[in-house]
Amino acid sequence: MDTLSTINRILCKKILLISRDVSYAYPDTQAIDIDFKDLARYANSNYRGYNIYQISISENKYFICIENDKYINDKITQLVISMIELSLSTFEPVHNIVYKVINEKYTKEDLKQFREKYSDIIKGYIVLIKYPQEYKNEIYEIIINSIDTQLILPYNEFFLVISNEDNIETKFNNISKNILTELFYETSIAISNKINCLENISYNYNNCLEVFKLKDKFKILDNVINYDDMILYKIVADLNPLIKNSIYQKIFNQEFNNIIDTDIEKTIEEFFKNNLNLTDTAESIFIHRNTLLYRLDKISTVSGYDLRKFDDSMIFKIAWLIRKEQSLPVLKK
Amino acid sequence: MSSLTLNSVKKVYPGEVTAVYNFNADIEDKEFIVLVGPSGCGKTTTLRMIAGLEEISDGEIYIDDKLVNDIPPKNRDIAMVFQNYALYPHMTAFENMAFGLKLRRFPKNEIKKKVHDAAKILEIENLLNRKPKELSGGEKQRVALGRAIVRNPKVFLMDEPLSNLDAKLRVQMRTEIIKLHRKLQTTFIYVTHDQTEAMTMGSRIVVMKDGHIQQIDTPQNAYNNPSNLFVASFIGSPQINVLTGTIIKDNNRLYFKLPDNTLIKLPEDKRNILEEQNYVSKEVYMGIRPECLSLGDDNVQADDISIVEVEIEVKELMGAEIYTYFTICNEQMIARVKSSLDKNVGEIMKIQIKADDLHLFDKDTEKTIF
Ligand SMILES: Nc1ncnc2c1ncn2[C@@H]1O[C@H](COP(=O)(O)OP(=O)(O)OP(=O)(O)O)[C@@H](O)[C@H]1O
Ligand SMILES: [Mg+2]
User: Fold this and answer.
1) C-beta atoms of A174 and B84 within 8 A
2) Is the peptide bond before A27 cis (omega within 30 degrees of 0)?
3) pLDDT per residue as tens, chain B (370 positions)
4) Residue A333 confidence class, pLDDT cut points 50, 70, 90
5) Cβ distance B93 to B143 under 8 Å?
6) Which region, left, alpha or beta, applies to residue A112 given φ > 0 means left and ψ of -120 to 50 means alpha?
7) Which residues of B touch A330 (CB under 8 A)?
8) Minimal-distance CA residue to ligand 1 atom 25
9) Cis peptide before B238, with omega less than 30 degrees from 0?
10) Among B47, B206, B207, B248, which residue has the fewest nearby CB atoms (within 10 Å)?
11) Is A219 on the interface with B (CB under 8 A)?
């Protein structure tokens, strides 16, 4: 924000502006070494070499932190605070705009007007990361330290992140692992497609929400899921129940139910996961290739579907998803 | 002090999938316990229950005699290390190790001390200012371990931390972790599917299959006295040779008789066991480790040695030894013999079997007879 950089220049002091929900920070949250959780507690006092002032603009609360060794609230300080208040009231931080876009508060005309202005920021994948209230700051810290983000803002029980990085899935897998090891919290992360303009946010945001729904429905264990990988799940979820039932009955006959155990189940899962590649599958579940072939033969004999054949495996996969959706696995050991 | 007790712990996932049945173990302070078994046997589930990430369906878990069933993971005083270490790319090694403590609001000087102490243990003091991209694979792995060490946990939980590394680095890191355990003097619980890893690292190993504990023992004991056929086959590389046959009595001596009528002498001192438990004339499995099959010597006429003639099918030179493959009664067998073996593929080789080296297993229960 221009006002802040001007004040910063004149005062020759470090200055930070941060919204209470940590969704907006100037220059950025890394700029000074402060625990954001403590800000509210230290408002109107000196904390770790910064004077903390709290202000409210419409419904949003902000903290201003100005470098100083003791707490003061003189005329100059008040002037500075007023200037910041004034500029904040005319300035609409991008996160506010994004909130409004998701909530469809804008007309098409409004959107057009913002589109150009934010074209640099609104570029990349839309990612939703679930967080519990108690770890909001920690998870925020983990995200911004793991990946370059265009935008990160809390919304409902999620952080909405826009990031333009490559290998996005791997990076968010790392984030989920770090959240787990640091906080013992098992998060869920949904990655949507790449967007390049404001209007697309809301559509992709909803796709991410759908990912979470499908994850629950099909009991998917992965912490990080890409919307693109959910297409088949979506199709199955929307299938006519009668068709679902007939596919299910055809494949999971009595004979199949007699042979299925954890080994067979794992084999099927991994064979799909490894793109029907025999060597990779055998390796991933640490069995000999011949054992794998033996199991696939067994599946083929009882179900009539040979997973090594494309058409068979496609139908079988649909049936397998139906089975997961219905969650009927009564395993015999 | 940090002991760990699992008392009849059970895990049933939604959908009635029982992943772990009745897990009982008393783990003492400073032990290095390895959970080992094939894919899907419940290792990760057990570890996650200890961590508190997975609710237990039945039973109790105690850490230091304190019931932790209802204690959230963050208050259990544990640290976890996973397969893929994900270091923060823009932070130095120091900052990476300090990060978790910073999140937990530790004072700066305390963080500094803890990180330096951990770095000393890991011998990476000179690398603290480097960013991840300036570190080798092994160094990154050590920084990742450092992130767990700085927390000073009572128990370390590691789930296949090395499985993504290349073979050479894996062997190197195994040693590092053993060394680390010795220096830290805390309890380690380590999950792997790799029996070599289990054998070389664990002070005791827990062999699991289908959610059931098969045996809890020292690696040596699990190898020498496996509790059943599964443990015997799972532990040891190459795998133990297994043959099916019948126990017979001939001239007042007990033999293991193969389908082709070959007789193999059974140890005299185990005779009582077999007779008392009515195994005579019954079918059993016989196991013999490849390293116990040696080259036959016609001059040896000991009372406890049997000689079998086999045709060599494959020879693999492994340095000081040769792995020779052959078939007995349709079963693929393997022997580790001295590399002075002068026979070639297709030739007949004499194999000598010592009665004391035999393992017998019940045909129905697959439990060890001796
Ligand atoms: N969240 C879950 N819901 C339902 N079933 C699960 C869940 N997690 C694991 N399982 C099942 O429980 C069993 C044990 O799984 P677990 O992950 O503990 O095995 P593992 O020994 O760690 O295997 P691996 O060596 O493949 O990692 C498997 O059959 C698995 O499919
Ligand atoms: Mg596992």
Assistant:
1) yes
2) yes
3) 689 999 999 999 987 789 999 999 999 999 999 999 998 899 999 999 999 999 999 999 999 989 999 999 999 999 998 876 789 999 999 999 999 999 988 999 999 999 999 999 999 999 999 999 999 988 999 999 999 999 999 999 999 988 878 888 899 999 999 999 999 999 999 999 999 999 999 999 999 999 999 999 999 999 999 999 999 999 998 999 999 999 999 988 999 999 999 999 999 999 999 999 999 999 999 999 999 998 887 776 778 899 999 999 999 988 888 999 999 999 999 999 887 888 899 999 999 999 999 999 999 999 999 9
4) very low
5) yes
6) alpha
7) 16
8) B39
9) yes
10) B248
11) yes
d(CA A88, CA A177): 37
User: Cα B317 to chain center, whole Å?
Assistant: 26
Residue B20 Cα: closest atom of ligand 1: 14
Q: How many angstroms separate the alpha carbon of residue B177 from the centre of ligand 2? A: 19
Supply φ then ψ for residue A81, to 5 degrees: -60, -40
Token digits for B33? 């316990």
Contact A14/B at CB under 8 A: no
Set of chain B residues whose Cβ sits within 8 Å of the Cβ of A181: 79-82, 100, 147-148
Rounded-to-integer distance, Cα B276 and Cα B153, Å: 51
Residue with CA closest to ligand 1 atom 26:
B39
Interface touch A174/B72, C-beta < 8 Å = no
Interface membership of B18 toward A (CB under 8 Å): yes
Q: For the CA atoms of chain B, what is the radius of gyration?
A: 25
3-state class of A126 per DSSP? strand
String of DSSP letters for A254-307: HHHHHH--HHHHHHHHHHHHTTT-HHHHHHHTT--HHHHHHHHHHHHHHHS--T
For atom 4 of ligand 1, the residue with the nearest CA is B13
CA distance B89 to B81: 18
Report, in angstroms and rounded to the nearest whole number, the Rg of chain A calculated over CA atoms.
Answer: 26
Cα distances from B338 to residues B166, B285, B309, B319, B355, in angstroms, run 30, 27, 17, 9, 20
Kindly state the DSSP code that residue B367 receives in the 8-state scheme: B
* Mean pLDDT taken over chain A: 87
Q: What is the chain A residue with the closest CA to B86?
A: A174
How much distance in Å is there from the Cα of B40 to the middle of ligand 1? 5
Ligand 1 centroid distance, CA of A267 (Å): 12
A182 to B103: CB separation less than 8 angstroms, yes or no: yes
pTM: 0.84
Residue B70: both structure tokens together: 């209802």
Q: How far apart are CA A330 and CA B18, in angstroms?
A: 10
- Percent share of chain A, pLDDT over 70: 92
List residues near ligand 1 (CB under 6 A). Answer: A 221, 262; B 13, 17, 19, 39-45, 193
